[in-house]
Amino acid sequence: MSTPADVKAAWIAEEEAIRKNYSKPGTADRETIGRYDGLGFLHAMLRGELPYPPIMDAMNFCLLQAEKGRIVFQGSPQFGHYNPIGSIHGGWYCTILDSALGCAVHSTLPRGKGYTTLELKVNLIRALTESSGPVRAEGRIIHSGGQTGVAEATLFDSAGKLFASATTTCLIFDIPQYS
Amino acid sequence: MSTPADVKAAWIAEEEAIRKNYSKPGTADRETIGRYDGLGFLHAMLRGELPYPPIMDAMNFCLLQAEKGRIVFQGSPQFGHYNPIGSIHGGWYCTILDSALGCAVHSTLPRGKGYTTLELKVNLIRALTESSGPVRAEGRIIHSGGQTGVAEATLFDSAGKLFASATTTCLIFDIPQYS
Amino acid sequence: MSTPADVKAAWIAEEEAIRKNYSKPGTADRETIGRYDGLGFLHAMLRGELPYPPIMDAMNFCLLQAEKGRIVFQGSPQFGHYNPIGSIHGGWYCTILDSALGCAVHSTLPRGKGYTTLELKVNLIRALTESSGPVRAEGRIIHSGGQTGVAEATLFDSAGKLFASATTTCLIFDIPQYS
Amino acid sequence: MSTPADVKAAWIAEEEAIRKNYSKPGTADRETIGRYDGLGFLHAMLRGELPYPPIMDAMNFCLLQAEKGRIVFQGSPQFGHYNPIGSIHGGWYCTILDSALGCAVHSTLPRGKGYTTLELKVNLIRALTESSGPVRAEGRIIHSGGQTGVAEATLFDSAGKLFASATTTCLIFDIPQYS
Q: Which of A123, A165, A169 sits opposite D123 (nearest CB)?
């Protein structure tokens, strides 16, 4: 049976392996995005064919797994993410959770469809410190329709401790020249 | 009458003047926090007597103004805050708004009381790019009671364009040795 | 100067006057809705040209005022709206606030546009009892765009005491044959 | 294998059986509430030893199942719950979901602890009509701590179609004389 320390070691190893494939920070233009369906876009990022989003460096997390309707990001908050009162800023939770939520919606979209996040709500359940990581944000689709997507996400560590949960509403639209 | 360019120049000048007073990034321990009421803590940070929160460097924003129940943060999102699809990541909005919301609650607390954010909800209204800044997050208290605080915030630029709005619920508690 | 009792009496009188104009409970079909712009639809309801929504009887509140981007509902929760632990059920707050939020968005729409509520978040700030009324839910538009609307609302009594606040995201769409 | 019609018939039969046990609408005072732990309170209501909340009549739903951390309400929206544009008012969704969320938290509390809902957020996913019922709101605990509880809920019909999802934050407190 795997101990919590085993799980933590496996999580760290998985992140290291994935990070080796990553390209460099950057953004994709609308034409490039339009060539992929949502899941294909995320897989191209995981394989290093597309740049990874710059925010991943600022917040020290990365996309780890992507399947249709289920996404995992992993990261470790650092000293640079502290709020003034000695715990990790709520914005770090929001950023990794927003990534998991948005990509959960994106992963369900066919070629020619794009999305934008209309709103997210985050429940902060436990304090994170710079020694809490690695933690995972897992996003799951709840509803993917013609005009809107709804997803939920949780943030937890390798011992299964829950740090936050979140939900989002996304607008789904046609990317004109590709739909 | 002041033109939008005048307002933008004034905003930039105000941020530069405030940043000159700032100390270095860091966090305050519970004993230090316990010496101040909420507004006094924020003013001590503005005067450079206390360190400023490290997240402010990662996200390129700073606390600009603090009065009881009303807080202004200002910042400029950068390339390092982009998401993969070419606009500023929702996490940047959430981080500056969470700061404004939390400090709006903090600013109403007497000495011996602390707070923690239970949840926040953010509506993303317009896309930010690396040329949108400076933008301001203004937080305002809605309710400050014995056990909970509720605040709202908006994110807008010097032309008055609205980029996001947000609300929060905070838990208010005694800091044992000081209450 | 008006005392709180004066304000309360004026609120009750205003509701009585408005209720005299109301027609009967019912709903409007898409064709009827398509004949009005959003504000015109609400004014037709206030004048009794259109039926009022049946939920207003179940929850004992009514639309009181409608201008572009600002809506007031007024009502009085009753014994029939209690939860099992002796205060008014959160659902009563949500229902009157959802009405104010949705109509604030509706009031900004031109003829040929409809809306649907995607999500709302409600902060419950103080307990209501069957003797708290009348209370008002005032909705205000924050953003009205081509595809989405964002609004906020507060619930308060004639002494200005705040009971709840709320925000919503609505989807705006064409009503095909009228746009 | 059970068809959707079988499931629907079973749901209706389960509600009829439970409703036979119900007492009358009413509320419990703090002393009565203090005699039970959370789950015991809900079970006493299901057995008819305690009155059921009056809001259940106004909204035509009832508590159906209660176990620790998992709650099911069932109901059927009616003509009296319509909004002016011909679908069931968002307030109906909010009310049944708020019940499921609050009771999910309540079901985890020991004797001497009470709770109050601080906020809820509801995503409305599909339109309900007066012929959609019966639908179920299932609430599940996410976090139950010393001071706060977080729960999630979904609203779905007997064919598994999803109509809404929701999350809540509750404040947990001591009921003074019983804790």
A: A169
The verdict on residue B100 lying in a domain is: yes
Percentage of chain C exceeding pLDDT 90: 89
Give me the long-range contacts of D14-22 (CB less than 8 A, separation at least 24): D14/D64, D14/D74, D15/D62, D15/D64, D15/D74, D15/D134, D18/D46, D18/D62, D18/D63, D18/D64, D19/D62, D21/D46, D21/D47, D21/D48, D22/D46, D22/D48, D22/D52, D22/D62
Is the distance from CB of D101 to CB of D26 less than 8 angstroms? no
Question: Is A25 an 8 Å CB contact of chain B?
Answer: yes
The CATH number for C42's domain is 3.10.129.10
- Dump pLDDT digits (tens) for B131-170: 999 999 999 999 999 999 999 999 999 999 999 999 999 9
Residues of chain D with pLDDT under 70: 1, 177-179
Question: Does a structural domain hold residue B179?
Answer: no
Answer whether A165 touches D (CB < 8 Å).
yes
Residue in chain A nearest B114 by alpha carbon: A85
Contact A171 C119 (CB under 8 A): no
Strands B135-144 and B70-75: antiparallel
Of residues B95, C29, C44, C55, the one with CA closest to residue D58? C55
Number of domains in chain B: 1
Of B123, B145, B169, the CB nearest to C150: B123
What range defines the domain where residue D34 resides? 4-174
**B70-75 vs B113-124, strand pairing mode:** unpaired
Assess if residue C179 is contained within a domain: no
CA distances from D77 to C90, D110, D120, D162 (A): 18, 33, 21, 15
The parts of chain C modelled with pLDDT lower than 70 are 1, 177-179
Q: What is the pTM of this model?
A: 0.97
Q: CB distance from A40 to chain B under 8 Å?
A: no
pLDDT digits (tens, 9 = 90+) for A20-66: 999 999 999 888 888 999 999 999 999 999 999 999 999 999 999 99
**What is the ipTM, given to two decimal places?**
0.96
Tell me, yes or no, whether B90 lies in a domain.
yes
Comparing CB atoms, the residue among B83, B85, B117 nearest residue A90 is B117
Spatial CB neighbours of A157, under 8 Å, sequence gap ≥ 6? A132, A133, A134, A135, A136, A163
Q: For D44-62, how does the pLDDT look when each residue is reduced to its tens digit (9 = 90+)?
A: 999 999 999 999 999 999 9
- SS3 letters across A136-160: EEEEEEEEECCCEEEEEEEEEECCC
